[in-house]
Amino acid sequence: MDGMLTGDFYRFEDLLPGDEREILARTREFLRAEVAPVANHHWNRAEFPHHLIGGFAELGLAALPYRDPAPSSLLSGFLALEMAHADPSMATFFGVHAGLAMGSIAACGSPEQQERWLPAMGQMEQIGAFALTEPEGGSDVSQGMRTTARRDGDTWVLNGAKRWIGNGTFADLIVVWARDEADNKVKGFVVRGDNPGYAATKIENKIALRTVQNADIRLTDCRVPEADRLQNATSFRDTAVVLRRTRSGVAWQSVGVMLAAYDIALDYARKREQFGKPIAGFQLVQDLLVRMLGNATASLGMCVRLAQLQDDGTYRDEHSALAKAWCTSRMREVAGWARELLAGNGIVLDYDIGRFVADSEALYSYEGTREINTLVVGRAITGHSAFV
Q: In the CATH scheme, what is the homologous superfamily, with its name and number, of domain 12-122?
């Protein structure tokens, strides 16, 4: 298919203009030559491949969404898809840095703050993290946030704990969300990784996204200057603006996982012989492959339309929520079918699919669970909120 994704059955990639297809092609070449070959090695050891950051930086991908004019949302989506196709862990690393951390500064920072932080982050000279989730607060963090911020002259004093913070062990700049003790509003702060009072401990024993360095973070009288408070973040609504955009990115990532699983299964079916011929010639195997392709194609079509709604300014929270809930659910099915097709070989890293099966569990849960996203969509279509 002319270097395109094997599973892009309806050639959605053709919708990209020529210059954006070139960016995608360069990215695809890097991911397949440098990232995919080492993915199992680092995943198995739960180590982060810091040597790959330079390659991402050379591509200029982190700064891309913040340029003027910005690329299309369709290109951003396909880039997220390609990263997940190579390695969901690296897709998550990049999404945290360029989407959540840089996105928070772009959406909620003052012009001075944007100029101070975004250029270096765009060149990946400084890596970002996003600290919202807490040990006792996930889906209800908007109302139950326990991390506090207290104004003390020209500084703020932060106290509390955060959990599941991607890049948290090595990030230079961490966007921390905390509740102002004075007005009870959620505000955003950029905390430096070497700031006194900031401590990050790597979360061990994960079964998914093992390459991602998730951290438990402890803030103990961590002092942050007023100049490092995101000036346009005055309530959780501002946080939600960032999450709405990145939630659609997770939908694209899940399509990347589906297409990777499909590619692995298709290649295996063509090569694996049983009863004297490749198993690709058996009806039940073809049925599994077609179901995988159908799920991936339907999900990709949803993501493409979502990107179009984003670019014309008409997309809403429920659009991102439906895409995230639907695509990640279909992703689990596709990954499971691919592992089923590989039978026993599917449970060892040698054949790759085991990593995608495990990583799909993390994508299914983060950026809003299926249940929470279902309630967002349900509220939109019925006019009634079923939230507690």
A: Acyl-CoA dehydrogenase/oxidase, N-terminal domain (1.10.540.10)
- The full set of domain ranges for the chain reads 12-122, 128-235, 237-382
Decide if 177 contacts 137 (C-beta within 8 A): no
Work out whether strand 148-152 and strand 173-180 pair parallel, antiparallel, or are unpaired.
parallel
Domain 128-235 is found in CATH 3.20.20.150: no
CATH class of 237-382: mainly alpha
> Could you tell me the mean pLDDT of each successive run of 10 residues in the chain, 388 residues long?
77 96 97 98 98 97 92 96 98 96 96 97 98 83 87 97 97 97 96 97 98 98 98 88 86 98 98 97 98 98 97 93 96 98 96 97 92 94 92
Cα angle: 194, vertex 90, 333; to 5 degrees? 135
CA distances from 302 to 221, 322, 364 (A): 45, 9, 17
